[in-house]
């Protein structure tokens, strides 16, 4: 019947031991069958014949529900029934272990191009799967989709509002334009192979105006764009090994897959994230506590916070990453945030200072958005603590921006009592 209708038929074997089925028994049917109240019950008093050649075998006793569903949806994606964006998978770009030696030998033999620290940070973002579904630095088709539509359109729609591109100078472009592959080096070390490269013009003014709304070189990332190469190169990346910085902070650089595993270990049934580039003050903590309360009110039992400080390039007057990590740890030690339900991990992306345009890229898989009224936290001068701003009592509130907070720190001054945990301020 399905063949006549032109429909694909998929046989799925939910391969689950009988004892697990009985343990779950959400409707109590196995219990009734064991008591003789239900006759001819499969697995109890009626034989079960497993399929001999199923299209998909799901071991439901070994994986959580989402992983079982993804396994089925992946198969449907391979058949072309559903788009690639239906699968919440992570696409890492690392060379498989059994191919690593050959890839390293290939990288050594290929022509090479030296890249800088900023480019290497983007290699890290791509290789760890933060920019799924990208296979590497954007080719021109992907770049134009990103610039004009703020998303990737091939194989479904994925948020990607800022381009992830590799600038190249004219000399390197001319030297490598006929190569089918070449090696990317950082500080003399082979880190990746870029395959089937495509070179195209780096239209810097248009890129900046679309991404930042300005081409003013006073904007720090705009300045770096104008100082970079006049060409862009896109292509598939084969990354030879995980990017590490050996700065004492690599233990906090968890990949998306590692984070998922950690949330499973903690038993999290909801995850909420707070991504920031500043030290945490009590206003931030108030917002995070309020988010957790909202999730509990919705019925979640163990909402878990992903505290996600940005770990790539930031402008010179921002607080350095090592200081911020120490400050975040002090916040957890002081109990301002619950250490039992918080995962502190570094987000490896550079900061672009592109406002809402950049924010959209931080949630590439977002398909639905619940618009929540933004509650502004400010310092309540009467209560001497951070509080939600009340415009009817505006004279009781003082706004302490990140810029002002950094200025106080540079000048060796202290913020008002209740603004930040004292131990955390000392770690600023």
Q: What is the CATH-assigned architecture of the largest domain?
A: Roll
- What's the number of extended β-strand segments? 16
* Terminus-to-terminus distance: 68 Å
Determine the CATH superfamily of the largest domain: Sulfate adenylyltransferase
Average pLDDT rating: 90
Instruction: Give the tally of structural domains.
Output: 3
Helix content: 25-40%
Rg (CA only): 26 Å
Question: What structural class do you assign from the helix and strand content?
Answer: alpha/beta
What is the name of the CATH class of the largest domain? Answer: Alpha Beta
- Spans where pLDDT lies below 50 across 5 or more residues: none
Estimate the strand proportion.
15-25%
Please work out how many helical segments DSSP would assign: 15
Most strands sheet: 6 strands, mixed
Classify the oligomer. single chain
> What is the fold named in CATH at topology level of the largest domain?
Sulfate adenylyltransferase
Approximate shape: globular
Structural description of this entry:
With 428 residues, the chain is an alpha/beta fold. The protein has 3 domains: 78 residues, 3-Layer(aba) Sandwich (Rossmann fold), CATH 3.40.50; 143 residues, Roll (Sulfate adenylyltransferase), CATH 3.10.400; 98 residues, HUPs (Rossmann fold). It contains 15 helices and 16 strands. The strands form 5 sheets. Strands 3, 4, 7, 8, 9 and 10 form a 6-stranded mixed sheet that branches. Strands 11-12-13 form a 3-stranded parallel sheet, with helices on both faces. Helix 11 links the parallel strand 11 and strand 12. It is globular, with a radius of gyration of 26 Å. The model has no long low-confidence stretch (mean pLDDT 90).
